Amino acid sequence: MMLLALFALMLLLITVGVPIAVALGIVALAAILVSGGWAAVPNAGLVLFDGATSFPLIAIPLFILAGAIMNATGISRRLIAFASALVGFIRGGLAMVSISASLFFAEISGSAVADVAALGSILIPAMKRRGYGKSFAAAVMSSSATLAVIIPPSIPMIIYGVMAEASVVELFVAGIVPGVLGGVLLMFAAWLYARRHDFPVEGAFDLRRVRDTLREAGWALLLPVIILGGIFTGWVTATEGAGLAVVAALAIGGLVYRELDPKELRRAMLEGGIQTAVVMLLVATSALLGDYLTEQRLPQRVASGIMALTDSRWVILLLLNAFFLVIGLFLHSAAAIILVVPIVMPLVRAAGIDPVHFGLIVTLNLGIGQQTPPVASVLVTACSVAKADIWEVTKVNVRFVAVLVGVLVLVTYIPIIPMALVEWFYR
Amino acid sequence: MGRWRRREQRARSPDRSVLKRGLRRLLEGSVLVLMTALAVTVVVGVTFRKLGAALVWYDEVASILLAWLTYYGAALAALERAHIGVPTVVDRLTGRTRTVVVLLAETSVIAFFAVVAWAGWRVVRVLGGTTLVSLPWVPAAVAQSVIPIGALLFIAAQLASVRDALSAAPVEEREP
User: Fold this and answer.
1) A53 interfacial to chain B (CB closer than 8 Å)
2) B45 at the A interface (CB within 8 A)?
3) Is there a contact between A422 and A174 (Cβ–Cβ < 8 Å)?
4) By Cβ atoms counted within 10 A, which residue in A168, A193, A419, B58 is the most buried?
5) ipTM of this model?
6) Do A246 and B39 count as a contact with CB atoms less than 8 A apart?
């Protein structure tokens, strides 16, 4: 009864426009007041502090910072030139370039919106000039940036790892094969579309051009290899790796490329600080509510309730996938992970689903949610760069979303796809 | 992108109130300093650990810096109206109804942080002479001060940007 009342209060607050993080806090305070009275309130101050001191989450601002520095050094231009030399000869070459550049860029930045903003501002106008149509340009940029979310480093994966108490490193490793697989499938879908609409190619394949552009972009590509290598081999933790990424980005930007735009860097740092704080405030206030929900044994009750209906792992995965797809329509990935993952984890574990496998499912699933209005930050960013209408873009985007859903189904029901590398190296 | 463009426009036409301008400068400065400090701490920490002389204070200080970044950054996000919400309903309202609903939401947020500021202040006072585990010369109250101070800054930021919320062209969503 009490739980229902709290849930209703939260919905009401969110509907009238209270930020989700604050709505969580208000509901938690209400619960504390009802069960413990005013005397219990000061403890909230402690929980709100402790909730924001999670060491693994320090990786979030650091990866954002590293990406921001790289971006302030004109890295996107170099990556695009390299991708263009590599796959530009295929029909619809610029679409191939967008997809592959997104995958490269994803290894530096942890955030899909940042990818779209950085790459889209160059590639979308280029595609428009080559007659690709702005809806297609926005759609391909938006869907490939979403796929990039499962390629390490990934901020949603870091959040999931902390919320589900799963290994962030194993999550990163699990994302590699599905990420590459999805990239190839997206390129195939783009190629089909390009062939039908007779899009141009970007010049013949030329090994010399590949070599020249690689020389320019090589440093930027070497960086993630070194850092992720350090993390994967256990030489440094994910957080420490993120710290090294900052140093490496500064070194490459300042010493090798020698074009670090301080104004752009300041803007990106502020943007990154805000992004971090927005996520962290959610983490902190959800810790406040989490204490209460754990006391009420809500996660265990959800688990036993569903397990009473079915104990088939596949049916439960189907239910969870459907649930997350619906949630993803209305919530951002970070908010959805922070709100839902702690509640469903006991169910996931009871059903014998590997938390790392589940983490990949959740991240990809919620990424797809960023392609589907009403709440679709990645799509919205791509549309605003392309100055295209969201619904027109969505019509073209349907095929790419279908590809992403296809990858999600594969990842869900053939666990070996994400888990092979994890099993091989870590189990 | 839309957001950034809007921010540039705002930079060209300076904030109307002195309070808002000062608050933005203060919060932006804090966020820049904290981001830098966090990166430096982690890098120094990992360097010393790899050199075989691990610093005892590194994890604790880095975690506290993250908490500080959380609350100073959250206040800046409030000023920019960047917190994640579901504006679908409010965006469709107009006129008086909209004003009433927006003010209701604003009041709820401010009331919440008023309680948090009070709770945080109580914690700071109770902590009295206790110190950090790894740095015995730093009072724990200094670390915890971010809760009451951050909550008050959040309230100030919320008040300074009420006008934006009332008149808002809908703020775009963002994905961290």
Assistant:
1) yes
2) yes
3) yes
4) A168
5) 0.88
6) yes
